[in-house]
Model the fold of this input.
Amino acid sequence: MGVILLLGALLLTACGGGTSAAGAGDRAGGSAGSGGAPRTGGGLVVGLYLEPLALDPHRQGYWETYRVSSNIFEGLVKEDLSDTAGPTKLLPALATDWSVSKDGRTWTFTLRQGVRFHDGSPFDAEAVHKNVRRVTDPGYEFYDETSAARLKNWLGDLEEGRVVDEHTYEFRFARPFLGFPRILAQSMSTLTIGNPATWERYGNDGFADHPSGTGPYTFVSRTVGDRIVLRRNPDYWGDPPYLDELVFRIIPNHQTRLAALLNGEVDLISYVQPDDVATLESRGFQVPEGHGAALLYFTFNARNKAFQDRRVRQAIIQGIDRERLAREVYNGHAVALGSLLPPGNEAYDPQARDFPYDPEAAKSLLRQAGYGPGALGFTIVADVANQNLAEWLQSHLKGIGVNVEVVTLDRPSYVARAFGRPEPEDGLSIDEYGGSYAEWLQQVINTNVVPKGFDLDAHPDLREAVEKARYTADADRRIELWRKADEQARREAIAIPAVSLTRYYALGPNVRGFVFPATNWYDLTKVWLAD
Amino acid sequence: MGTLRHILRRLLTMVPVLLVVSVLTFLIGRLTPGDPIEAQFARDHTPEQIAAIRASYGLDLPWWQQYLKWVRELFTAGGGMSIAQHRPVFEILWPNFVNTLILTAAGVLVCAMFGVLIGVLAGIGHRRPLDRLTMLLVQVGGNLSVYWFGLVLIWIFSLRLGWLPTSGMYSRNGGGLGDLLAHLVLPGVSAGLISMLVLARFTRLGIIQESSSDHVRTFTSQGVPRRILLGKHIGRNILPAVVNIIGLEIGTLITGVFFVEHVFNWPGIGTQLVNAVLGKDYALIQGGVVLVALCYLVVNLLTDIAVDALNPRLRR
Done:
């Protein structure tokens, strides 16, 4: 039968008219040799592990979406994506300059002149204003409730957005907001600039089918479940990118994505599995070492009475050896974390530690809280992608006399149970997220800790520390205040920061110019292909 | 005329089947845990906003009303709106459904060609080494997981030999029938594998039984050449059964194709449905299942017609 299959395969390949068997085709375009100098031309194929969500600047979600959409859309401000350590520098993007009033409430942006959207419409203060109105002003014909909800965290305090002149725009907030420019440079849930002419033509729902921005690449096509194709924007205002075309293929199956890279069908993949790093490197593929701003962390179900006791939360933290977790679950391709502000975050403090691994101290704390050996039991709820991690925690926590059950669910069921309706015995859930802005700490508290039953009113010191940092008008002390808030959060043991992955992308041997930046997306304009 | 009436009757019986399928799909989606609206919007929406979004999809209505609304939308609004993609369901599913049909057709081709070939070889050489070897392979192959088999094919033919692409439907530069066919080989073989083995077994059995029937024995004693016996008498007699098996196997194949799509990243309806199930995108799941069920029924009908045409004795 094998022979027959082989023959069949040969036969049909022959029918293929001699198509390059690996499907690799022409890679780089141009005819010059490789050398060290960047070459223009060619197309890069990226293998994504998730289907991106809407290619709409205000509705997008998930990192993989932004790794695509950041080539189409830009913000007023951007981060320096050549920075591998962080915190990244802020760079001008669609705004060339910005300033803040003394009270920290009014931000004025000078907009870049001569920029056009992909359809030729002008980018000016009026376009920015329509973007602002789309997400804040219910009186606007194209006000989009879905987008407004996503941006409420940052624009909820906006009193007024105002066109000062054709190239100047002003935001006035009810309270000081010194973190605003860095938030504008983020990926999701911020004011990335879309082309108003497009939603005026296709409607709010139709925008994602005709994504139009000012970015270095224009949208060509999208086949859901298969690929998204972008082409170089010939009228781009900034340095032109090297590559003619970007193709994003959606390959959720880890083995298939790896095989596609090994076979030369894709040039760059994300979410490399720790077990595959050695294979890739032994075959000449590049697996850059670095870290994004994302962290894996565990949150408590504070509706479970056991976790309303700080001693229990601290005991669980002290009962987990995060260094060992990084070694055993991620083959050492991860760094252990001791704070919810991850590397890459502007308030990251490498010295920050919550509680050190100390199983004896953990057992003692549990005894003090009334749980002798084997008395505490709970469920870890994880999405299926984190099953191995949950099982590792299960066996590990036995060491401090805690009995854990593991429930793994598909992503929506996981979210609905972890965030919506946890079972009474649920104890921990596993999440991944993170940003390079200090306000991320507030975001993680508001979107992940409080929704799981943590009563912020019962912890006035923490609430006060966060508010002080969020609404400070003292630029010199802002980071210090966020670190203080983080210290307070660590003291209260509100969650368990775990690890940040360090070998996340893999590239073909001929890909040049790729940087693994200290953010969760990358810059493809500097990437080129050697022979 | 009789045949036409038979077809019409079969078409009519499809209606209650589809009705049952639609009710079951609808109920199963609702009875499983997880809430698509909360999953999509819980992080950054207030409870009031979530309630408003839920209402906009009609998910706040009693179940029976939701069901009727959906059935109405099947005919008038492209199967309703996908929660995750904010687009009509059939607009999303159609292009992928065509891709699934392409892969299914490749699977059917593999099944029909190699299934018959293997079955005939084994049947002719009944109880000889070739027969035993073939049946051993059939036995082993029948227990293989399609998922595992697909990965092994990728490993051998793509990574080791470098002959064929690992995944997707087109290569990086895309286009061309040849490119598509090259991408079809491995998923097609994986998709057709199990059905091919089933067909091989039935074909072999058919040949063995027909070979020992009275009329074939008579022809043999009269000195009719074995080639003519096989082609004209045995072949013709087992053909309706073979067509019937192929028809039945297409149904199995369509569901098996979903796993194959996952392994080979084939942009078919299976990939869409897996995404929809992961996202509990009700309208998309329901639309997909109805589409597949309809396809299944149409294939069964066509098989019946073909078997009817091949075997006049069955005509009513």
Q: What stands out?
A: The CA atoms of residues 81 and 517 of chain A lie 5 Å apart. Chain A touches chain B through 70 residues (CB under 8 Å).
